[in-house]
């Protein structure tokens, strides 16, 4: 009986620590990756300013070629929208809409992953003397839930690798 009480006390202390540390972890999470593409910003911009164009270099669509894609709004720029649905949990269900677009400089999007939450993403294009430095960012609020905040610690690892793959695909497409 003494061992059972000790084990329960240790488990209670660990649970309290999990919650307390979880509440101290950052609520806001940012992931960013960059690549230099050997082309001017005006050659890169069309590939990030259109939801349809992202289909050619997306790091997620190769995971499930059967992903259902629905486009709406304009073909490019503010208001261009993509909704996707896949049975593959690494692709899932969601939507993305371009919320702001500055020609050859910046594209901002709002993402909705349904039950998984929302996020904002952006593509920043900086002229680097005939080349373009492309930075892809993601910002999300992990909420007040300590479990969500613990998951926030892994966002860079989860999303970062996909961003690197997507940027490499974009580079190959634009330079090819």
In words, what does this structure look like?
- This protein has 176 residues and is of the alpha+beta class.
- The chain has a single domain, classed as START domain (Alpha-D-Glucose-1,6-Bisphosphate, Chain A, domain 4), CATH 3.30.530.
- 36% of the residues lie in helices and 32% in strands.
- It has five helices and seven strands.
- The chain has helices at residues 2-24, 41-48, 51-54, 146-152, 155-175; strands at residues 28-37, 68-72, 81-85, 93-102, 106-112, 118-127, 132-141.
- The protein has a seven-stranded antiparallel beta sheet with strand order 1-7-6-5-4-3-2, with helices on one face.
- Helix 1 crosses helix 4.
- The protein is elongated, with a radius of gyration of 20 Å.
- The N and C termini lie far apart (70 Å).
């Amino acid at each position: 009986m003494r061992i059972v009480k000790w084990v329960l006390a240790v488990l209670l202390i660990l649970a309290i620590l999990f919650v307390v540390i979880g509440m101290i972890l950052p609520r806001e999470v940012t992931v960013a990756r960059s690549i230099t593409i050997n082309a001017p910003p005006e050659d890169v911009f069309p590939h990030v300013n259109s939801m349809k164009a992202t289909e050619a270099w997306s790091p997620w669509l190769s995971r499930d070629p059967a992903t259902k894609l629905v486009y709406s709004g304009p073909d490019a720029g503010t208001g261009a929208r993509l909704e996707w649905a896949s049975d593959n949990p690494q692709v899932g269900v969601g939507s993305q809409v371009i919320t702001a677009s500055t020609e050859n400089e910046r594209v901002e999007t709002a993402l909705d992953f349904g039950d998984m939450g929302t996020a904002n993403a952006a593509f920043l294009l900086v002229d680097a003397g005939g080349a373009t430095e492309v930075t892809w960012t993601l910002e999300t609020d992990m909420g007040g839930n300590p479990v969500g905040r613990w998951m926030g610690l892994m966002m860079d690892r989860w999303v970062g690798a996909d961003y690197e793959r997507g940027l490499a695909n974009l580079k190959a497409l634009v330079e090819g």
